[in-house]
Amino acid sequence: MSFRSRLLLFFMIIVIVPMIAVALVLFSITADSETGKADAAIAQGLRAAFAVYDGDRAQARPALETTARDPELAAAISRHDAAAVRRRLAALASANPAIKRIAAYDTSRRQIAAVGAADAVAPAVAAPSTGTKRIGLIAVSITTSTQYAREVKRLTGLEARVIVNGRLTGSTLSEPANRPVAEHSGDTKIAGRAYRGRFARLTDVVGAPATVGVFENRNALANSIDDRRLLIGAILGAFLLLALLSSIVVVRALQRQVNKFLEAARRLANGDFTRPVPVEGGDEFAALGREFNAMSEQLASKIEEVQRKRGELEETIRRVGEAFAASLDRQEMVNIAVRTAVEACEAEAGRALPIDLRRMKAAHIGEETPELRAALMEAERTAFAIHEGHGADWLAMLDATGDGEAGDEPLERKPVRAAVDGVFALAVPLLARLGRGRSLEQVGVVSIARAGRDFDDAEYDLFAYLTGQAAVSIENVDLHEMVRVQAQTDELTGLYNLRHFHESLDGEIERSRRFEQPVGLMMLDIDDFKAINDTYGHQQGDLVLIEVGRVLRALSRDIDEPARYGGEEMAVILPQTDVAGAELLAERMRAAVAGIEIDRLDGGGRLRVTASFGVASLPANAPDKDGLIAEADAALYRAKRAGKNRVGRAEPVIAES
Questions:
Q1: Residue 588's domain is classified under what CATH number?
Q2: Number of Cβ atoms within 10 Å of the Cβ of 609
Q3: Given this model, what pLDDT does residue 292 score?
Q4: Is residue 402 scored above 50 in pLDDT?
Q5: Euclidean distance between CA atoms 243 and 623, whole angstroms
């Protein structure tokens, strides 16, 4: 075997074989990681499915209570008269269109009779009685399996299947219903497509056993794994090609040098001294010096290779930095920044200390010994001192100039160094542009420390880059939150818009029913607003809307939600407030509106306006959301007809006898 062949074989053993092993390990890790993410999403989907199921059962409670109090039904159950029970159940179901199924059971939980959809799920169960004697159980469901499966898919994005008594009763997949289906978790095929999912038992007191399963498309998981493997393969392939080309160049150079030495040795062996070995000085030490220089050249090439690899590592870390710069979770982003800085700069400990705990919590990485803590505190004090020394003028200068060109960034924006008893630390203020004006603010300080060795320039630059990306991410979070708020508010008045009003009212009504607390609603309409627009113009009308909206915001509690309902009509959601409390607050707002004076745009003096209010609460004045809005609106227009500039109160609900 030639010298060149042995070198190539050596290259294959030390480079190609380990790279293949690394590729196999990375491929396996990638598959496990993506599968684990999919399983976590499926587990979260099951938790959401249980929450939807419990919510549907809770929504069925009002219908159940009405059914359970029916005396005719109780009498029929106590007599075990199945025909009479069935007739009464049918009548009760007809009286309430929301009911999908009602079933009656005896005290041994054997079904006496049932009416409605066979695929109904999420029953609410109660035990009716005659006097002090329990006579059985009543189960009322307002949800079918198909409705339940669709709601689970809407909330989780996963496909859902519902199995009752071993048969498929509801599914979001294109598959026939009402057929036997095995509850198979893991990888499976449904309607000719591959999915990954899990089943879980839905807990019911009575009725056939029900199971829900959530599934993720297996093709999407496989594509994600393939994409990651392709990226890993491309990176390893590029590295292998570069290493192979480098080895060919090195092997050829070594072979030429060895050939020269062989030719010189043969000439000397044959007695040919006319052409001595081409070395400087003509002695053995000079030849050793030449060999040393050759080894030095090889070492230099190896160092270049190490630097190239380090450059690749830094580039990878920069990609990580760019990734968390796009995050919308500022706390997790700060944690990643500190953790990455500690690992990349080989520090022993690091931390991020916020200025405002409402925006960010402190983050600590590594064990802070007293020595490390002293160095961290010294670096942080220096960073804060530089910042405080410049004051508002320094922030204004940075805000006007931005980051500047490379190398021109002010010293105050760069990390500072500190050393305490052989422990070295770096610290940098986190500066971010926040708020509507995007003004530059200091939100905290990040620091790292280690003992025995100072941070070199590369580590210093890397730390500066990572903390800079953390600041960019904080800006992104703030901008995202500002855009989210703008999407929920009316541009003219600053109140919540109609869409947010309906979403919030739905949530408050759900909490009201769950915790048995009232929720109030106030509706108001500016009196004679059309006359204002017609007389003074729409710009004057806009000023009136702005001022009335300001009054609503000023007098609303932190938990209240004032909104622009449409045109000159506004509304305020009043959690944990009955109709009497809503009336008191409406009276305060009415008086405040009547007391404001608005400059006329034509310079003709000041304009005064009034507003009429209507208040209602749930459950005192209405049973549901639509009824609550209707009752508050009706009270408002009663106040209008009664002379305006007053508060109308909804009439109480008259209980059915």
A1: 3.30.70.270
A2: 21
A3: 47
A4: no
A5: 75
Instruction: Please indicate, yes or no, whether residues 518 and 448 belong to a single structural domain of this protein.
Output: no
Q: Tally the domains of the chain.
A: 2
Is 547 inside any structural domain? yes
Domain span including residue 432 = 326-487
- Tokens (6 digits) for 579: 């109709």
* 81: in domain: no
Q: Is residue 546 part of a domain?
A: yes
Distance, C-alpha 342 to centroid of its chain: 26
Cβ-based burial of 71 (10 A; exposed 0-12, middle 13-18, buried ≥19): exposed
Q: Are 449 and 425 in contact (CB under 8 A)?
A: yes
Provide CB contacts within 8 A for 7, sequence distance 6+.
247, 251, 254
Check whether residue 544 and residue 593 sit in a common domain.
yes
d(CA 627, CA 457): 69
pLDDT band at 254; cut points 50, 70, 90: low
Residues 350 and 341: beta-carbon distance below 8 Å: yes
Same domain assignment for residues 528 and 586: yes
Question: Can 568 be counted among the known catalytic residues?
Answer: yes
Closest among 476, 361, 467 to 413, alpha carbons compared: 467
Task: Report CA dihedral (174, 178, 180, 184) to the nearest 10 degrees.
Answer: 40
- 547: closest CA among 504, 600, 616, 475? 600
Domain match, 494 and 635 both: yes
What is the residue whose two structure tokens read 């075990």?
80
Using H for helix, E for strand and C for coil, what is the string for 627-652? Answer: HHHHHHHHHHHHHHHCCCCCEEECCC
Residue 263 falls in which region: left (phi positive, over 0), alpha (psi -120 to 50) or beta: alpha
Q: Are residues 458 and 335 in the same domain?
A: yes
Catalytic pick from 159, 378, 568, 631?
Answer: 568
- Give me the amino acid identity at 110: R
User: Both 452 and 504 in a single domain?
Assistant: no
With the C-alpha atoms ordered 642, 648, 649, 650, is the resulting torsion angle positive or negative? positive
Tokens of 215: 């599934």
Q: What is the pLDDT of residues 181-206, one digit of tens each?
A: 888 788 888 878 889 999 989 877 67
Residue 511 domain-assigned (yes or no): yes
